[in-house]
Amino acid sequence: MYARLGAGLLVAALALTACSGNDSPASSPATGGNEKVELTFVNWDGGMDKVVDEWNQLNPNIQVQLSKPSGTGYTLYNKLITNNKAGTNPDITQVEYQALPALIANQVVVPLDDYVKGLDAKYDKASLAQVQFEGKTYGVPQNVCPMVFFYRKDVFDKLGLKPPATWDEYATTAAALKKADPKKFIGNFTAADPGWFAGLAQQAGANWWKADGDTWSVSINDAASKKVADFWDGLITKGLVSPQPNWSAQWNTEMNNGTIVGWVGAQWGPNQLPSIAKDTAGKWAAAPLPAWTAGDATVGIWGGETEAVTANSKHPAEAAKFVEWLNSSEAGMTSLIKHVQAFPASPAGQQLPALKTPPPFMSNQPDYNTLMATAAKSVRTFDIWGPNANVTFDSYSNAFAAALQKKTPLAGALDTMQEATVADMKKLGFQVAG
């Protein structure tokens, strides 16, 4: 199944299937004897240099040279797409899950099936869904980021409140908190984080993209996503949540001074809280994400990444060996936990001794990583990310910010996202139903 992208370039329509097929590029010669291979690796994570150092000490004949990109996210991905034809890309690149389809569609990265085996026995379907397209595997899942609810335990305890188990309880607790202290909010709605909303839509049952043969279906404004938008719309209208977007100076201030006492976040939250709310260490706790139906443990993800081997690499076998070590070996995963604060996508990795100690900012919750491992078992993701998720994400930020400013229904922003995504896919040459 194929679609035409740009000036005559055939690209995969990226329908998700089980891993199969052997069309990967020819293996590079195996390293042996004193032959030395040098690989280049682009990654923006703090602490990754220490992880790479450990690999280099263990593998003198396959040395990895790490460099930080000039820009993260789609700034990097667009540069990779541009440099692909010139043949100047690194051997290995960091890539977020939602961006991988775009790199596959532009033939920037290659399948790893000839080099990496047995992933289906090491990972669950939700994690593998992030890296497998058209029956081929383009990465080894590095981390999983289940969404959870962070709350100021000291404030909740003082007011006799409990972390909400359902979204109905979230609304009720938000009202009770506001009544007890009109200056406080249980959380915020963020127009700055499309991945945040996507994770909430996943939990509600949304599937924004599907591929059938060479035809795509796009359903960003489906009933599940509108249910999520309407829920937050009601809270905003009643003044029960803050409209301050994540990462803004005002949001940081309100998180730090106790104006905002809850955050719908993800597993990596404790890594960010020190720079967001530095004076509140030891005061936060994490609880399962509120459910739409009591007892349903389903959650979406916010974030996550893998490493991919580029089409420009002259040593794909060695590059794949590094990627596999990094994300699925005990040594590699332990190093990622210690130095990058990653939470492994591998269920075995989630049981490593390095996770017995909670993140420093959550030292009051010794079972923090146990909670994350439990949440990870019930992760639900989109079956597939679209090939132009960057356009979808840009549209989210613009459309939801406009809706908040104009006080128009948030569900209308989803219609705008739908239109922008479909129009761009058609412009790129993809067949889109409807």
UniProtKB/TrEMBL annotation:
Residues 1-20 form the signal peptide. It comes from the Bacteria. It comes from Kribbella sandramycini. Pfam families: SBP_bac_1. Keywords: Cell membrane, Lipoprotein, Membrane, Palmitate, Signal, Sugar transport, Transport. This is Multiple sugar transport system substrate-binding protein.
